[in-house]
């Protein structure tokens, strides 16, 4: 089954594991690719309002670059605004992330083309 065609993102937020050099390196590459597509990229603090919440009206998708902890932090930031999150596994386990680092380019191309589906998940409060 193919994913429905959705509106491609105009603004992408990246949340980056603060202590993994590979996360920062990958964030720079991902940001450069999105910028080359004419998409605005916000990284960590630039993507948050004064309450530490991702700007829901502006951000179309958030990409978490780290492990499960970074994914949980990203989801907590994005949940109130209903922002979909793509998790890239740079950790050891990767239970919550769906993309490996060598798959990020393909995942971004699918996001940019609008060929993706959002899988709603429950979140405990």
Describe the protein.
This protein has 125 residues and is an alpha/beta fold. It is built from 3 helices and 4 strands. The chain has a 4-stranded parallel beta sheet with strand order 2-1-3-4, with helices on both faces. Helix 1 links the parallel strand 1 (11-16) and strand 2 (40-43). The radius of gyration is 13 Å and the shape is globular. It starts with 10 loop residues before the first strand and ends in a 12-residue tail after the last helix.
Summarize the SSE layout with pairings.
Blueprint: E1 11-16, H1 21-36, E2 40-43, E3 61-66, H2 68-79, E4 85-89, H3 104-113
Summarize the model shown:
The chain has helices at 21-36, 68-79, 104-113; strands spanning 11-16, 40-43, 61-66, 85-89. It is an alpha/beta fold and 125 residues long.
Task: Write out key terms for the chains shown.
alpha/beta; 30% helix; 3 helices; single chain; 4 strands; globular; 4-stranded parallel beta sheet
What is the 3D form? globular
- The unreliable regions are none
| Total strand segments | 4
First and last CA, distance: 33 Å
Multimer state: single chain
* Tally of contiguous helical segments: 3
Please give the radius of gyration in angstroms: 13 Å
> Numbering strands along the chain, what is their spatial order in the largest sheet?
2-1-3-4
Order of helices and strands: EHEEHEH
Strand content bin: 15-25%
Mean pLDDT: 82
Structural class: alpha/beta
The largest sheet is: 4 strands, parallel
Helix content: 25-40%
């Amino acid at each position: 089954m193919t994913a429905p065609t959705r509106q491609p993102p105009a603004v992408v937020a990246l949340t980056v594991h603060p202590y993994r050099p590979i996360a920062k390196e990958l964030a720079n590459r991902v940001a450069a690719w999105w910028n080359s597509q004419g998409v605005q990229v916000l990284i960590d603090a630039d993507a948050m309002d004064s309450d530490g919440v991702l700007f829901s009206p502006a951000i179309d998708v958030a990409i978490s670059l780290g492990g499960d902890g970074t994914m949980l932090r990203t989801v907590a930031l994005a949940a109130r605004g209903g922002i979909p999150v793509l998790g890239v596994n740079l950790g050891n386990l990767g239970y919550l992330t769906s993309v490996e680092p060598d798959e990020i380019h393909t995942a971004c191309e699918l996001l940019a083309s609008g060929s993706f589906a959002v899988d709603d998940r429950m979140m405990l409060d």
